[in-house]
Amino acid sequence: MGEFELIRRYFAAAACAQAGAGVALGIGDDCALLELPAGEQLAVSTDTLVAGVHFPAAADPFLLAQRALGVSVSDLAAMGASPIGFTLALTLPGAEAAWLQAFAGGLDRMAQDCAVRLIGGDTSRGPLSLTLTVFGRVPHGLALTRAGARVGDLLCVGGELGDGAGALALVLGQRQAPAEIAEPLLARYWSPRPQLGLGVALRGKATAALDISDGLLADCGHIAAASGVALLIEQARLPLSPALLALLGASGARNCALSGGDDYLLAFTLPAEHLAGLQAQGWPVHVVGRVEAGAGVQLLDQQGQGITPQARGYQHFGSDGD
Amino acid sequence: MGEFELIRRYFAAAACAQAGAGVALGIGDDCALLELPAGEQLAVSTDTLVAGVHFPAAADPFLLAQRALGVSVSDLAAMGASPIGFTLALTLPGAEAAWLQAFAGGLDRMAQDCAVRLIGGDTSRGPLSLTLTVFGRVPHGLALTRAGARVGDLLCVGGELGDGAGALALVLGQRQAPAEIAEPLLARYWSPRPQLGLGVALRGKATAALDISDGLLADCGHIAAASGVALLIEQARLPLSPALLALLGASGARNCALSGGDDYLLAFTLPAEHLAGLQAQGWPVHVVGRVEAGAGVQLLDQQGQGITPQARGYQHFGSDGD
């Protein structure tokens, strides 16, 4: 048995230990088999992370696996889908037991948090990279796409923005901070919490949704384009965490929220009549703007005047990343 | 717009041009959405190909794309599944228009041949590699797994074996051959034909199946292990192509068939009563052995005596491949 066969067995053991709603056949055959209840659709998303581009090659393997799976599952949350399973294509230079054990541990931790099961994959020798494909289910016609925002809807986000981007300088060792500031930011970076519950709660209510990966301005641009509307963002309403404000000050924190990335929180458009009900149920729904007729994204100051953002667009980790 | 955004648009255009049975939402949102008819299961398989490990970095991009998709779809054939779609995670050092155009062309050619649609993906900068995840559908309970072979079944294959392995020396430029020998072998290597029709025809008939990727002996070992039986292979019954026999002689051709790889033809166990019907319908069903009680795989000569194969196990392309 080759070392890569051993790796496969390692992950197979982790996968079998988990519950399998919707999974008729897991790892070990030519294909996995998934079941879908009548009247539901399958949501599918694929993400690749490359060492040196999307993460430092020396990243802690537990944290890397946890983050990679969390980021991928966040795409299911953005569609209002309930997770079923995922495949992992792992390419790595060699089989180091300690690295693999930590990686499998991080994967298992996030898989349990998200109730998602490893159903298949492939292991190859080569430069370190990961491709995850995630599967979820959503009732027919209730998936949250980017295309339904309507004039008059509120623009909302699912939590405090910018922490992931603010953490990047800490991740890269370019900046230091006391533990009470660094720890919550690093936790947001390495352990994203896909807003699966919020996504399900928004079914039939939100008119458009996505998860914020490239910064609020850029991602709102996707909703505006797909829906054929303009999105207005009121800068003063951006929810910012105490840790981010302490690290970067108000202006720096706002820049992270608007033009940073790696939030993996939902942004969505919501008819106003649904706001109070969702908030009363305890869902984190923060109004940050509104939908108007037109095109593109406009940032507004407290007087409702347009502002040109200081920075726009975001490159994950490395400058060449995409 | 970055160059990688341009790449995504290139593939998006190719995907939209194709028919979309089973695809409710394709490329461009957080997830694709698939539909599954009532009473069917979704079959999923993921494969990674890494430059320098699974294929030469200088491989023709049209042929590379065609082969990568064909190899992946072959896993659907092995389950008796009908293809729906696939995702492509493409990592490449840069965006060269000629390379991308040829790659997209090869992908589109094989996608049309297999009636499978590009439904999503991810494009990253990094060392050249591809991860494809393929999706198919199969009626509940009719998927062909590796686990159902029964004592008394015939062991069958879907065509002439060893051509892909025989072609490898030609692919690598280690060997030359006249066109009438080289061309059919190279076609088998670069343009695998997933046996989707045969897979569907075997539903409810074959008791176990897989596609041969690592050589008949190794892959039959998977069926034997999963089914808890022994498989006997009669060496004299191996179907071998004229081109492979001309290139390598009888002994070399047999070695490729038994211990080579890259065939991507089906191997399956079949109750004898189904043989004549399938052959009468024109399906390529070649009996190469039988299922007995016991464990493992045994190779037999024409007198029914056990033979020790000359070579066993196979490394794709590079010696470190897996």
UniProtKB/TrEMBL annotation, chains A, B:
<keyword id="KW-0067">ATP-binding</keyword>
<dbReference type="GO" id="GO:0009228">
    <property type="term" value="P:thiamine biosynthetic process"/>
</dbReference>
<dbReference type="InterPro" id="IPR036921">
    <property type="entry name" value="PurM-like_N_sf"/>
</dbReference>
<dbReference type="InterPro" id="IPR016188">
    <property type="entry name" value="PurM-like_N"/>
</dbReference>
<dbReference type="GO" id="GO:0005524">
    <property type="term" value="F:ATP binding"/>
</dbReference>
<dbReference type="GO" id="GO:0009030">
    <property type="term" value="F:thiamine-phosphate kinase activity"/>
</dbReference>
<keyword id="KW-0784">Thiamine biosynthesis</keyword>
<feature type="binding site">
    <location>
        <position position="46"/>
    </location>
    <ligand>
        <name>Mg(2+) 1</name>
    </ligand>
</feature>
<feature type="binding site">
    <location>
        <position position="262"/>
    </location>
    <ligand>
        <name>substrate</name>
    </ligand>
</feature>
<feature type="binding site">
    <location>
        <position position="314"/>
    </location>
    <ligand>
        <name>substrate</name>
    </ligand>
</feature>
<feature type="binding site">
    <location>
        <position position="54"/>
    </location>
    <ligand>
        <name>substrate</name>
    </ligand>
</feature>
<feature type="binding site">
    <location>
        <position position="146"/>
    </location>
    <ligand>
        <name>ATP</name>
    </ligand>
</feature>
<dbReference type="GO" id="GO:0009229">
    <property type="term" value="P:thiamine diphosphate biosynthetic process"/>
</dbReference>
<dbReference type="InterPro" id="IPR010918">
    <property type="entry name" value="PurM-like_C_dom"/>
</dbReference>
<feature type="binding site">
    <location>
        <position position="122"/>
    </location>
    <ligand>
        <name>Mg(2+) 1</name>
    </ligand>
</feature>
<feature type="binding site">
    <location>
        <begin position="121"/>
        <end position="122"/>
    </location>
    <ligand>
        <name>ATP</name>
    </ligand>
</feature>
<feature type="binding site">
    <location>
        <position position="47"/>
    </location>
    <ligand>
        <name>Mg(2+) 2</name>
    </ligand>
</feature>
<feature type="binding site">
    <location>
        <position position="214"/>
    </location>
    <ligand>
        <name>Mg(2+) 5</name>
    </ligand>
</feature>
<dbReference type="InterPro" id="IPR006283">
    <property type="entry name" value="ThiL-like"/>
</dbReference>
<keyword id="KW-0460">Magnesium</keyword>
<feature type="binding site">
    <location>
        <position position="75"/>
    </location>
    <ligand>
        <name>Mg(2+) 4</name>
    </ligand>
</feature>
<feature type="binding site">
    <location>
        <position position="45"/>
    </location>
    <ligand>
        <name>Mg(2+) 4</name>
    </ligand>
</feature>
<dbReference type="InterPro" id="IPR036676">
    <property type="entry name" value="PurM-like_C_sf"/>
</dbReference>
<comment type="pathway">
    <text>Cofactor biosynthesis; thiamine diphosphate biosynthesis; thiamine diphosphate from thiamine phosphate: step 1/1.</text>
</comment>
<keyword id="KW-0547">Nucleotide-binding</keyword>
<comment type="function">
    <text>Catalyzes the ATP-dependent phosphorylation of thiamine-monophosphate (TMP) to form thiamine-pyrophosphate (TPP), the active form of vitamin B1.</text>
</comment>
<dbReference type="GO" id="GO:0000287">
    <property type="term" value="F:magnesium ion binding"/>
</dbReference>
<comment type="similarity">
    <text>Belongs to the thiamine-monophosphate kinase family.</text>
</comment>
<feature type="binding site">
    <location>
        <position position="75"/>
    </location>
    <ligand>
        <name>Mg(2+) 2</name>
    </ligand>
</feature>
<feature type="domain" description="PurM-like N-terminal">
    <location>
        <begin position="28"/>
        <end position="138"/>
    </location>
</feature>
<feature type="domain" description="PurM-like C-terminal">
    <location>
        <begin position="150"/>
        <end position="299"/>
    </location>
</feature>
<feature type="binding site">
    <location>
        <position position="47"/>
    </location>
    <ligand>
        <name>Mg(2+) 1</name>
    </ligand>
</feature>
<keyword id="KW-0418">Kinase</keyword>
<feature type="binding site">
    <location>
        <position position="211"/>
    </location>
    <ligand>
        <name>Mg(2+) 3</name>
    </ligand>
</feature>
<feature type="binding site">
    <location>
        <position position="213"/>
    </location>
    <ligand>
        <name>ATP</name>
    </ligand>
</feature>
<feature type="binding site">
    <location>
        <position position="30"/>
    </location>
    <ligand>
        <name>Mg(2+) 4</name>
    </ligand>
</feature>
<protein>
    <recommendedName>
        <fullName>Thiamine-monophosphate kinase</fullName>
        <ecNumber>2.7.4.16</ecNumber>
    </recommendedName>
</protein>
<feature type="binding site">
    <location>
        <position position="75"/>
    </location>
    <ligand>
        <name>Mg(2+) 3</name>
    </ligand>
</feature>
<keyword id="KW-0808">Transferase</keyword>
<dbReference type="Pfam" id="PF02769">
    <property type="entry name" value="AIRS_C"/>
</dbReference>
<keyword id="KW-0479">Metal-binding</keyword>
<dbReference type="Pfam" id="PF00586">
    <property type="entry name" value="AIRS"/>
</dbReference>
